[in-house]
Every structure is written in structure tokens, then in C-alpha cells.
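Take a look at the protein record below and flag anything odd:
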Amino acid sequence: MTTPSSALVNEIRAASRQMVREFGFLDKAVAGTDLSGSGVHAIMEIGLHPGMTAKDLSAKLKLEKSTVSRLLKSLETRGDIVQTRSETDGRSFGLSLTEAGRETFAKIDRFGDDQARGALSRIEGDRAETIANSMTAYAEALAEPAGGYTAPVPPQAPAFEIVEGYQTGMIGDIAAMHGRTHGHIVGMGPTFESVVGKAMAEFMPRVGNQVNNSWSVVDSGEVIGSLTIDGEDLGGKIAHLRWFILSESLRGKGLGKILLGKALDHCDRHGFDEIHLWTLKGLDAARALYEKNGFVLADEYVGDQWGKAVTEQMFIRKRPV
């Protein structure tokens, strides 16, 4: 464990105070909203982790349970969140954003993204990456127990292989995952799975065309997560993001973010002006990931192509200028 000099400590503390002021945390309202700093952080964490409990939020924000209870009550009164009693533990309530809450989340996220991009654009060369790594290391060090020092654990690469293009058996694997994951929304039975399988069977012979691609997480020869870009079926400069699905075992490991990142890079490299995707209302974790990566809800309607009337949503991401 190194002993920092007094000059270094003072420099870090001065920079930390300035960052607090620049972020606007001394104002009554934060991030372009009428929310306090704790309210902004609560909306962000619930949006990024739908279903988390008040206890989870208390630990994440490092706030007393009574403070979090009052905070949640105020957010519920505003119409930003709902608390749903757990089916397995009647004493526990899962937290999720309402439609208004998702709008608030998107506004906060845009504000923070614009602020970070603006600052980073004024930093020359590769210093921005150094700063990002240093800030992460410093934040992790602040979170270390006060009683001692624990050597940081280097981030581990996903223990799964991510491959491109067609994989043997992937049509059946992906159709089955859709049926198991979304069956409770669209209705159990063969219709939904059959529609997914038929559409994939049409696409896969042309997956190797230049503007198309598919990225899959493979485990022991089985596709357990996947995302596809169809650059042909919508025409013009519009790409179609299709069949984004992860098995339950992959949730929370960051693989969805990796797959989406590969798809966005592909679309930007090939000059697509827009990316369109269709999804089902109620898949809040997926929606949070889409919105964090620039997708905006463009349309919402009730459809029955899956065998049961459900609310479908269309999201659009425009290529960054």
C-alpha cells in the first residue's frame, strides 16, 4: 500500500470538489430535472436495474433505509416509479419505472451523456481513456472497507465465446429462447416460436451479405444469446435490429451490452442513418439498454401477429453526427 503525499491528496480533493460543483450537485435540482441528487441517482439505478428492492437501493446509494423510504414515496407520488409486491416474499417490493419515469430516466441519461461527451471532446489525444480508467480505479478505491486495503480484482473477460455469422442450430436455439422468455407476454404455444423460426429461416441464407451480420454467445456448441442486424429488409439507409435475446444464465454479465455494441459499430461502419427495432412492452431491462445507447421510442401499438394481442413498441436510433 502506497502512502500518498499531502500535495497529491490536496489536488485530488480540490478536483473532487470542483467536479461536484460542475455536476450541479449543489443546486436544488440536478441533471436538468426538478429532482434532488438522490432522486436522480434513484431513477438511474431503478432504470438500469428494474426489479431491485428498496434494500438494494439503500445499499447502492449508501443511504439509510428511512431516507430511501421517504425518497421512494416522493418518486411514487410524482408518478415516476411503482412498487410491486414480490410473488415469493410478501415483505419485499420490486421497484420499476412507470412510463413517466422512463421519460425522466431518458432525460437524465441524455443530460449526463451530453455533459460527459462535451467534457471529453475538450481533452486531447488518449488522455480521455486514461482519465476514465483512473476515475474508475479511484471510485473503486473509495468503496474499499475503511479498515484496510484489498487489492483490486482485475475485470474478467466473459467466459463465453462470441462468434459472428450463422451457427449450426442457431435458428432452433434462438426461437426456443424467445418462446421461453416471452411466452408469458405473447401467450404460450407454437405461434410465437414458429413466427420467429420462419423469419430467421428466411434471413439466415443471406446473413453473409456485407451489410448483414449476427453475433452469438456460444456455450458447448449451443447458442445461448444472440443479436442480428438485417441491413436489407427495410431498404434505404435503415438497418433492422432483430432477435436480440439472452438466456437467463447470461443476465447481468454485461454480454447484452457487448452484443449491442458490436451491432452498433457494424451499422455505423456501413453508414446506416437509422437502426429500427421492434419489441414488446414490459421488457424494461432491454428498454433501458436500448435507451442508454441512443434508441428512442417512436411508435407503440397493439398487434396480434404472435397469436395474442400485445403492445408492441418501435424504437429508432439515429446515427451520431
Remarks:
- The mean pLDDT is 83.
- The longest helix spans residues 99-120.
